[in-house]
Amino acid sequence: TIDIQRTSQTYDCKESCLCRILRFFWSASPPDTILQPNVFPGNCWAFKGHQGQVVIKLPARVHLTAITVQHITKDASPSGTVISAPKDIAVFVSLLGTSDKEEETLLGVFTFNAEEDPMQTFPLKNMLLPRAFSHVKLLVKSNWGNPWYTCIYRVKVHGKME
């Protein structure tokens, strides 16, 4: 599930006249969209700007091995671009999701190359094993050029349950 308290707000484009008109046909998807298998143009979670985060609460403590991030291809994009795709990503883990002062541990920093495979898997540092974690934070530090929002289509967390 998504820890809404520690996740960036969903992008709301009400400043744009065009967006207000399109709202009759389209509405913003919630963060838990990234946990669903339906990856088609527009079915993503968007947050405002080029920096944001999502915190995923795992069903149990997990010994993490990798994380997969997915976006659509340039060919599938209605605009013909993938500038809203995440670019620089950091992955953090923690044990409990209730404390603001909780210590997070960095497991990796990656670049999602939007021009390559739309589904990219990044191995995480194994130095923390045999520790298992209950929360994963995906911190997007930049995107590929969209000044208004960043879209994440899907995130998969890989590992073994404790």
Extract low-pLDDT stretches: 20-25
**Helix content percent band:** under 10%
Number of helices: 1
Helix/strand/pairing category: mainly beta
Could you give the count of β-strands?
8
- The CATH class is Mainly Beta
Assign the CATH architecture: Sandwich
CATH fold category name: Jelly Rolls
Kindly report the name of the CATH homologous superfamily: Galactose-binding domain-like
Number of domains: 1
* pLDDT averaged residue by residue: 87
Subcellular location: Nucleus inner membrane
InterPro entries: Galactose-bd-like_sf, SUN1-5, SUN_dom
Protein name: SPAG4 protein
Keywords: Membrane, Transmembrane, Transmembrane helix
